[in-house]
Amino acid sequence: MGRATAAAMIPGLALLWALLQGGAALSTPRLRLSFQELQARHGLRTFRLERTCCYEALLLDEEHGRLFVGAENHVVSLSLDNISKRAKKLAWPAPVEWREECNWAGKDIGTECMNFIKLLHIYNHTHLLACGTGAFHPTCAFVEVGHRLEEPVLRLALGSLEDGKGKSPYDPRHRAASVLVGEELYSGVAADLMGRDFTIFRSLGQRPSVRTEPHDSRWLNEPKFIKVFWIPESENPDDDKIYFFFRELAVEAAPALGRLSLSRVGQICRNDVGGQRSLVNKWTTFLKARLVCSVPGIEGDTYFDHLQDVFLLPSKDRQSPLLYTVFSTSSSIFQGSAVCVYSMSDVRRAFLGPFAHKEGPMHQWVPYQGRVPYPRPGMCPSKTFGTFSSTKDFPDDVIQFARNHPLMYNSVLPMGGRPLFLQVSSGYTFTQIVVDRVAAADGHYDVLFIGTDTGTVLKVISVPKGSRPNSEGLLLEELQVFEDSAVVTSMQISSKRHQLYVASKSAVAQISLHRCASHGRACAECCLARDPYCAWDGATCTRFQSSAKRRFRRQDIRNGDPSTLCSGDSSRPKLLEQKVFGVEGGSTFLECEPRSLQAHVNWTFQRVGEAARTQVPVEGRTEHTAQGLLLRRLRRQDSGVYQCAAVEQGFSQPLRRVALHVLNAAQAERLARVEETMPAAPPGPKLWYRDFLQLVEPGGGGGHGGAHSLRMCRPLSASRPQPPEPQRKGRNRRTHVPEQRAERGPRSAAHW
Ligand SMILES: *[C@@H]1O[C@H](CO)[C@@H](O)[C@H](O)[C@H]1NC(C)=O
Ligand SMILES: *[C@@H]1O[C@H](CO)[C@@H](O)[C@H](O)[C@H]1NC(C)=O
Ligand SMILES: *[C@@H]1O[C@H](CO)[C@@H](O)[C@H](O)[C@H]1NC(C)=O
Predict the structure, then answer these.
(1) What sign does the dihedral 48-50-55-59 (CA atoms) show?
(2) What are the Sema domain coordinates in residue numbering (predicted)?
């Protein structure tokens, strides 16, 4: 079926088909690490309070080494170095009267009528500003936290409780998006109990409160606020702007499309104090533009319209941070998520472009062609661009134009014109993102940590593709940071401490940004991993520090090509030959599981007495599985050396050598008798392996000096003997040496 026909039938599917054809639809992580593995070997730490849910607000206090957490009825102070260490808790429940009122209003007393802490900001050296839902009665307070981590203070400042309307949402299901600039709080929330009056609101501080025009769908149309940032526009603080990221129902969409939700970036000037005669205490500099994250296609674009999170990656230039965002699809046809990156210059360009205009209800949205009044709406009153010193001085035509034209005609497109990374039909949705810029041997790389709705974190690196600024995302790791598959609700990153903090409904987790040793024990594995945090130091895969002048630091993030970097590297763990026995007509299983999920396995075979090495065919008697090679109905001529290699990026790395001996019936019978003389299953390591080994191999104690692993030859359905202990530990099964062998020494054995 051609793409054109598919498009004619179901557009959405045709686009999915185009995505799949592009090969960009679903990536497999190189490493997938379970919760248990992360906890046991990679220092995953968790925190939870008893009978407390909804860890949603995370606040990093790098200077004092603290992580503040807002949850149901609690504010908690944790150590950034180890969140499992003793926590300081502040219980802050909603008063009984409010809970009863909330219950009378038809809300659930046990799950909704609680004080869910939604917002935490550092207010000054000694206090936090905290706001919660207060059982549908939003409330804010200052929380005294003291100067130092060790100080035993964490309490509500006396008399500081105040109305949190317009700061915290009422409904625990809603998010709070806000930024504290100086003493002023800029927030995007629903400011009423029914959740219908949405506002972008400035409160606290000395100046009068300013908000958006209420109940005007051109300004805000059932928005869901995601993030708010304060970004300077020039050296002059009078030009500073506050940017709001949200999604809302599109006013500009054709009615045929129904309730179409789109993503937006909105701006206001920090020094906006509202109009003099109209728009009194309302924003006069509010503008918004559509944020597009889509994959271009011949039949049309595939849109990811549901903005989920925004991370602002600072750059040397304070005015031009990069905006890393995650989106999901709002389509019912297919489920997908994408990362799109925007530059501030593209955002500003949209606000300097044409205004969207609609002449009347029966007209189309068009770019406004008429005269735009001066000063151009959206510009801040400042000496940089004009002579106005306050928005109250703006002429009436400016105020009128601003009220009627909040929407820009042009959209903001992502850098490179397409998503940096996307996953389609992966079974999860991206919900959160944080980014770290890392100095590697061959330049700077952005490492993305993406939280999902299934309790996992994806680690993705952005590498240049073709000519800059085009980049593509490579999925390095998938980390199951929560025991359950809870939705990741919040993330914070500490580049300084190399730690990631992840919150969900059920817990908070802390994990290091790197796990270099988990990439493997060979130079090639370390190199193929393309992890900017890690490098090969000549003996192990370890943390890379660009400042450390070390000679043997091998790293190639851009190409991940071990053939040049690791050639002549003699430190590769020596491949030991293991012995496996099978019986004619029976089956045997040769284990080989590469660490990398992106590698595929190549089995080769060298028959006894032959020099030629051939590829093991994929045919009736052999079956290649993800865990190894299954050989059925064994024949004597299957005896020989089997070698398994992991092939990745065209680079082949031998993982395991197995010498298979296929025994005939008579030999097998002797084996059976040996087993009989060892009646009950011996405790501990299965000693009978060794005994049998010595039976079939006279003087078996010496010989190869290599590792032996004996595999029985019964049908697989019967209980297979387990391999000896050392081999079962961990995933790296390559080099196993039964330790007790040498102690017992050689023993005279029966001969065949
Ligand atoms: C973190 O703190 C907990 C509780 O004190 C302790 O059991 C654990 O070993 C610590 N972990 C690390 C990596 O320091
Ligand atoms: C911080 O703010 C709180 C609340 O306004 C105030 O009581 C306290 O004195 C302030 N502390 C400092 C060090 O300014
Ligand atoms: C598998 O290994 C054989 C022998 O080394 C080699 O000739 C062949 O190209 C390899 N196959 C793949 C797919 O790498």
Answers:
(1) negative
(2) 30-513
